[in-house]
């Protein structure tokens, strides 16, 4: 019993009886969402704004705000127009009942006229300001006639001023009301929208004129609070603009507030300049401005009141949540939050673009897989099925009308099938002929052997052609699959490149500018695009240097020491006059450079050679040397070899892997024409970062590397391009070193020497005898030696390409300066 009781009681002790802690952050978030939903989504903010605008005055007499506000709300948010109208009438009623009645009548008149003429309007948005101005002008004109039978010039001027204000205010409200009615706004504000928002906020605050709290004016407190908020968010420029605009509107509302415009503008400038001090700095700016303006323009009694109003605005500003100012800053140009929002949008667009490219890549990958999937039937099953189809065709044409058909194919099916199969294989292997032994065996079975032989011979012709065509289709499918896969890989790499963000290097840019300017060289601007080792990319704006080469001689060596790797001038655009700036691009220099030399001669000393050569600069610091030898000589061979190199260059520069590129060129050459026109290709790709080389030889002669007194032979066995649609490309890799000479040549040079049995030994001996390492001189000497060996006769097109590998040593030494911290 004790065990049972313990088993029941013990778990009760584990129950947590402490109350859970309140999640204040979650509660505040819910409260904030509820407030936003009530005021913005349900539209009660328009009720409050309408109340304040309904009692707002200009020159203590004019009320031009009501109709423009209602008309704008009616056009933008028709379902919220009743709330706005209630607020306007309530606000106007605080001034006088006559004012409230006039507001109601003028609003109803606008609704009637606008609804009647709405069906004829092409653009309601453009017509609305004219309607508001015209109807308000007519209303004021009618009011003047009702109150006084005569109309003075002053009354006419005031009606005109009020109509003009209504026109302008309608334009402003059309821009700014959407900012108050959108619950989740994502678009960034334009400058015009910000100005309209400021005017609208200032106009709303004029509705608080006359409100007092312990002798302090509510409008003064709210105006100074508004200026501090914008100074804190956007700095002195926007802060002073808000101060001037708000002060000007308050001055129009009440002439006695003229000094207030100076105070607001001055506090906007000071607060913006002191925004680095956060809220305390902005508040101090308003306090200083209040003291200066108060002591200068007012007496000591009012100074105390001004300081009290400023203190109340500062308290209200300090209590403003950081989240509210940060959200508002996202929409104002020039703020860090605005820049971050723009970058977020650009990042989203970049990701969408990268995703689309990646989707295209997956499409090409799927197409490649679909082309590469061959039939799932095994070769044995395929051959049996083809044999059955073949025999069906033969029997249909020869045995169907024979009187022994039943005996052969019904009673002795296996014997007849095996014998005919033997005959078919015999004729297939002997080009349609059949041995005496096999014919005797078949004649014992068949009564019409000659007819069968003729039918088999005819069907064999079609069968072999069909088999050859099927093989070509399979080869083409495989080739297309590889090409599609290559395109897919290029697009996938491109999508990854798009997604790579450009890092912000503000701190590093300042460090570079300080280091170089500390050395006495003036720099206007530094922009860093990449600090990746081996791929540094920096642009600078440097004052006109009068052609002294400061960028190459001073700035590049200093960057070399700052960044810890060799930096050179990649591109320089010099200023056209002494007051301009030179724009220079600095890049990482490669560890190696390649110096090339070419020598060529056409057959019999002609002008057009069947050989073509090219130096191809690829991305990522790679260079390619290529020689192509077209079949034969003359213009057609030159066209074929030139076309081969141009196709190869375009495909390689697109980023496709070299094997796929060569196979693609081969397929184009083989499918382009039915003539037997072939081309050889000798390709060497050298990585300038580490001097690693790849050699792809398609029907070409060997290449040689001369390293001091050592000769290295590079060769591979591949047929010329265009002969076969499908072939494997052998890639030979070799690590080059500084000082190496790479010699590539066409068959006219390699097999050119006369009375030579071993071309390899002869070429190696001539290369060892060379006393120069200049690439152009080496190419000229080799070509001259070959031509001399043939008694100055040129029996074939000849081309020699020579490349010398060198260490990339900067022309100017590095200058010691403080090192750069790569990480911000």
Strand content: 5-15%
Number of strands: 16
How far is it from the N-terminal to the C-terminal residue, by CA?
71 Å
Within the largest sheet, what's the order of strands? 7-16-15-12-13
Give the structural class.
alpha+beta
Mean pLDDT: 77
Number of H- or I-type helical stretches? 28
- Low-confidence parts: 1-22
Shape: elongated
Percent helix: 55-70%
Major beta sheet summary: 5 strands, antiparallel
Radius of gyration: 45 Å
Give structural notes.
- The chain is of the alpha+beta class and 824 residues long.
- The protein is 59% helix and 13% strand.
- The strands form four sheets. A five-stranded antiparallel beta sheet has the order 7-16-15-12-13. A five-stranded antiparallel beta sheet has the order 8-9-10-11-14, covered by helices on one side. It has a four-stranded antiparallel beta sheet with strand order 3-4-6-5.
- β1 and β2 form a beta hairpin.
Q: Brief description of this entry?
A:
The chain is α+β, with helices and mostly antiparallel strands and 824 residues long. The chain is built from 28 helices and 16 strands.
């Amino acid at each position: 019993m004790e065990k049972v009781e313990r088993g029941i009681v013990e778990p009760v002790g584990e129950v947590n009886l402490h109350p859970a802690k309140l999640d204040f952050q979650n509660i505040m978030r819910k409260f904030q969402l509820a407030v936003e939903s009530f005021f913005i989504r349900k539209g009660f903010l328009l009720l409050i704004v309408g109340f304040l605008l309904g009692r707002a005055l200009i020159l203590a007499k004019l009320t031009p705000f009501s109709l423009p506000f209602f008309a704008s709300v009616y056009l933008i948010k028709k379902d919220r127009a009743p709330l706005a109208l209630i607020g306007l009438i309530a606000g106007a009623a605080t001034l006088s009942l006559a004012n409230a009645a006039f507001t109601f009548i003028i609003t109803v008149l606008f609704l009637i006229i606008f609804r009647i003429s709405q069906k004829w309007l092409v653009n309601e948005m453009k017509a609305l300001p004219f309607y508001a101005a015209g109807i308000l002008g007519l209303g004021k004109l009618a009011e003047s006639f009702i109150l006084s039978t005569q109309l003075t010039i002053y009354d006419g001027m005031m009606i005109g001023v009020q109509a003009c204000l209504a026109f302008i205010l309608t334009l402003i409200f059309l821009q700014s009301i959407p900012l108050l009615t959108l619950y989740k706004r994502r678009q960034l504000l334009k400058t015009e929208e910000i100005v309209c928002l400021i005017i609208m906020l200032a106009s709303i605050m004029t509705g608080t004129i006359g409100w007092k709290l312990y002798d302090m004016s509510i409008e003064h407190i709210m105006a100074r609070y508004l200026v501090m908020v914008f100074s804190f968010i956007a700095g002195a420029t926007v802060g002073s603009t808000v101060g001037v605009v708000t002060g000007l509107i308050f001055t129009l509302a009440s002439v006695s507030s003229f000094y207030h415009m100076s105070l607001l503008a001055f506090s906007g400038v000071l607060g913006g300049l002191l925004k680095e001090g956060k809220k305390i700095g902005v508040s101090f700016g308003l306090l200083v401005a209040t003291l200066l303006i108060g002591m200068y323009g007012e007496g000591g009694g009012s100074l105390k009141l001004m300081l009290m109003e400023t203190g109340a605005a500062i308290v209200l500003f300090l209590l403003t949540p950081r989240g509210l100012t940060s959200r508002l800053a996202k929409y104002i140009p020039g703020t860090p939050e605005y820049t971050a929002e723009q970058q977020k949008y650009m990042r989203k667009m970049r990701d969408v673009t990268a995703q689309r490219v990646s989707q295209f890549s997956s499409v090409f990958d799927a197409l490649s897989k679909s082309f590469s999937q061959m039939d799932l039937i095994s070769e044995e099953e395929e051959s049996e099925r083809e044999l059955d189809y073949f025999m069906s065709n033969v029997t249909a044409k020869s045995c169907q009308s024979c009187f022994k058909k039943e005996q052969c194919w019904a009673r002795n099916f296996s014997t007849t099938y095996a014998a005919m199969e033997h005959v078919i294989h015999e004729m297939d292997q002997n080009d349609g002929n059949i041995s005496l032994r096999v014919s005797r065996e078949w004649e014992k079975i068949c009564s019409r052997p000659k007819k069968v032989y003729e039918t088999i011979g005819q069907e064999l012709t079609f069968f072999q052609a069909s088999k050859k065509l099927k093989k070509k289709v399979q080869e083409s499918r495989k080739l297309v699959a590889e090409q599609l896969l290559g395109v897919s890989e290029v697009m996938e790499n491109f999508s990854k490149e798009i997604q790579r963000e450009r890092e912000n290097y503000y701190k590093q840019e300042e460090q570079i500018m300080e280091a170089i300017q500390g050395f006495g060289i003036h720099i206007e601007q530094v922009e860093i695009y990449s600090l990746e080792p081996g791929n540094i990319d920096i642009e600078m704006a440097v004052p006109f240097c009068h052609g002294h080469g400061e960028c190459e001689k001073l700035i590049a060596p200093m960057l070399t020491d700052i960044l810890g790797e060799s930096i050179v001038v990649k591109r320089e655009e010099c200023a056209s006059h002494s007051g301009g700036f030179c724009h220079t691009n600095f890049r990482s220099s490669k560890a190696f450079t390649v110096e090339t030399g070419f020598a060529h001669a056409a057959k019999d000393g002609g002008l057009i050679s069947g050989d073509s050569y090219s130096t191809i600069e690829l991305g990522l610091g790679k260079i390619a040397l290529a020689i192509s030898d077209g079949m034969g000589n003359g213009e057609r061979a030159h066209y074929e070899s030139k076309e081969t190199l141009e196709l190869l260059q375009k495909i390689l520069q697109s980023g496709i892997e070299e094997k796929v590129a060569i196979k693609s060129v081969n397929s184009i050459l083989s499918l382009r024409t039915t003539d037997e026109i072939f081309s050889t290709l000798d390709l060497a790709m050298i990585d300038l970062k580490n001097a690693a080389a790849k050699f792809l030889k398609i029907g070409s002669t060997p290449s040689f590397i001369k390293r001091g007194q050592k000769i290295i032979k590079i060769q591979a066995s591949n047929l010329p391009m265009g002969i076969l649609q499908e072939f494997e490309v052998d890639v030979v890799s070799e690590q080059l070193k500084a000082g190496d000479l790479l010699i590539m040549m066409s068959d006219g040079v390699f097999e050119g020497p006369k009375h030579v049995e071993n071309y390899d030994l002869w070429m190696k001996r001539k290369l060892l005898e060379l006393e120069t390492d200049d690439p152009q001189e080496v190419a000229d000497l080799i070509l001259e030696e070959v031509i001399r060996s043939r008694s100055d006769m040129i029996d074939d097109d000849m081309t020699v390409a020579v490349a010398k590998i060198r260490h990339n040593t900067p022309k100017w030494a590095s200058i010691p300066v403080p090192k750069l911290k790569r990480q911000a």
